[in-house]
Amino acid sequence: MEPKQIKEGYMVKKGTVLNTWKVVWVVLSEDGVEFFKRKTDSAPKGMIPLKGAVLTSPCQDFSKRTLVFKLRTAKNQDHYFQATHLEERDYWVKDIKRAITCLQGDRKFTRKSTRRSIRLPDTVNLNELYILMRDQEDGVKELKLEKQKRVYNHCFTGGTVVDWLISKDKARNRPEALMLATGLLNEGFLQPAGDVSKEAVEGGAESAVLDDPDALYYFADSGFFCEGYSSDEDVIVKEEFRGNIIKQGCLLKQGHRRKNWSVRKFILRDDPAYIHYYDPTKGDEYPLGSIHLRGSVITAVEFVPDAKRYDVDGNLFEIITSDETHYFFQATTAEERKEWIKAIHTVSKTGK
């Protein structure tokens, strides 16, 4: 009997021979993880057996890459994957861990609710705590801070996190607050920004979060970006990134010149209404481009007029901007296409 397919989607994977990171289509089954060069390929580039494997998440082997997890096989071969956002990483990690556990017990794969594996009291729910911290009115305030000739946007200090946890009766004292903050960082809810906080994480300190005014952090799904001192014109460009992140993930996008299709990571923001797209292998610091969505028309389409040969089929949609520029995209499923169209349509009507 063929192994049951559990999950599939785009992720970034580190090469096992060369140290290059490339986008691959990943399929998780009951007994292994297959990865393909393209979603449409019939044969995988490789297969990772899960029997006896160990998953490490978060994996901090790469200081410049976040949201990475590591799969070590029974033969001690390491495979590294990088998700595009926190929720996606958590979904993959949870299902892969469950598949490994079921294999060890010789059971069929079934999903069940599991508590995050960190050493905190049973009464602590990190997910609920994170939601409270992100509250626009009563949560941790995101600031624009200057340190060592660099400007950090949408961030806060470790001391700010500690103060907030104590003020909201989530911790009785500063050591207890640091323990909670470290749990949030270990689970990927918080990310280090700047040399001081990154050195603490990489150095394996007992408390990965520092109660220090020079230690900066940001929310994993925030609009964080860092820049050097810049001109007024640069500041105007950065206004595009002020909006809250509404949705993010990978889609296929058609290029404007060669009309070829490439996997890109997209981040949709409101007010101002922009969608930025990135090379998933390079990180979120510098987008490849952006689309101003105010006044745009977003529709599902059945075909792309000038698509090349085998390129795409199904789950297509189009954005026509106010200056009549056409952009074509492909989602992985009909449901995903519906979600993106709804989210972009809302932003195009409400954002400026």
From TrEMBL:
<feature type="domain" description="DEP">
    <location>
        <begin position="136"/>
        <end position="221"/>
    </location>
</feature>
<dbReference type="GO" id="GO:0030036">
    <property type="term" value="P:actin cytoskeleton organization"/>
</dbReference>
<dbReference type="InterPro" id="IPR000591">
    <property type="entry name" value="DEP_dom"/>
</dbReference>
<dbReference type="GO" id="GO:0005886">
    <property type="term" value="C:plasma membrane"/>
</dbReference>
<dbReference type="InterPro" id="IPR037370">
    <property type="entry name" value="Pleckstrin"/>
</dbReference>
<keyword id="KW-0677">Repeat</keyword>
<keyword id="KW-0597">Phosphoprotein</keyword>
<dbReference type="Pfam" id="PF00610">
    <property type="entry name" value="DEP"/>
</dbReference>
<feature type="domain" description="PH">
    <location>
        <begin position="244"/>
        <end position="349"/>
    </location>
</feature>
<dbReference type="Pfam" id="PF00169">
    <property type="entry name" value="PH"/>
</dbReference>
<dbReference type="InterPro" id="IPR036390">
    <property type="entry name" value="WH_DNA-bd_sf"/>
</dbReference>
<dbReference type="InterPro" id="IPR036388">
    <property type="entry name" value="WH-like_DNA-bd_sf"/>
</dbReference>
<protein>
    <recommendedName>
        <fullName>Pleckstrin</fullName>
    </recommendedName>
</protein>
<dbReference type="GO" id="GO:0035556">
    <property type="term" value="P:intracellular signal transduction"/>
</dbReference>
<dbReference type="InterPro" id="IPR011993">
    <property type="entry name" value="PH-like_dom_sf"/>
</dbReference>
<dbReference type="InterPro" id="IPR001849">
    <property type="entry name" value="PH_domain"/>
</dbReference>
<keyword id="KW-0007">Acetylation</keyword>
<feature type="domain" description="PH">
    <location>
        <begin position="4"/>
        <end position="101"/>
    </location>
</feature>
